[in-house]
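User:
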Amino acid sequence: MGTLDGKVALVTGASRGVGKGIALGLGEQGATVYVTGRAEAGGTPTTPFAGTVQETAEEVTALGGRGVAIVCDHRDDEQTRNAVARMVAETGRLDVLVNNVWGGYEHFWDGTEFWLERGFWTVPVDRWDSMFQAGVRAHYVTSVAAAPTMVAQGSGLIVNVSSDAAGKDDAGVSYGVAKAATDRMVACMGHELREHGVAAVSLYPGLVRTESVLRAGVFDLSDSESPQFIGRAVAALAADPDVMRFTGHVVRSAELGRQYGFTDPHPPRGPSDGP
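Assistant: Predicted structure:
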């Protein structure tokens, strides 16, 4: 039996990348995992990368959990609220919410000379809008929709996938500010949810071998993490009866691995992690 048998989770932005890895990490522990994203089977591709919410849900089920796909564009508040309402109507509970969906990464595939940009004044302004609408706002709106169920249960875990860019001056203005806002959101949510037995944390992965990172081809991946390693970090938190000790704070995937004793199912093979 998995440590999360009977638990229900929602992972946003789970067609691929970190979100998919988190869904799989929860699924291998027996959770029912609802996965959202814009990429759907038979639909118009949203990026150059493969992956759909249906495929992620199928892999969750194959690992021993139960995967359920919901096509959702989290830039649309109504779609977000409807996705959460459907899940609660079907299961009657919500134990884990992972806010992973994010915007502003279009430069990895839209032809922008990202690596030549020097200074925030050279960056398209709409990248700021993408990070705050499809990232920070989406995290907030999904949490607003999910919190009443968790509060009524007297338990739950909200995880905002964030980054140590929140504390770095050289992370890029849009990215750094958006991630700092994500962390402050967690600190304030943690304060308000504590009395209800609901935890909120910011999770810092290391360098993760997502499709975008691999395509960029400029990173040293020798100390990187697989997406499913991040999933195991979330699963460990969700199974911890003392998870409230982390509420309102930042936690790091590598440190959680040391504390809880889980390992990366797909460790890096070398600096490029090539085939």
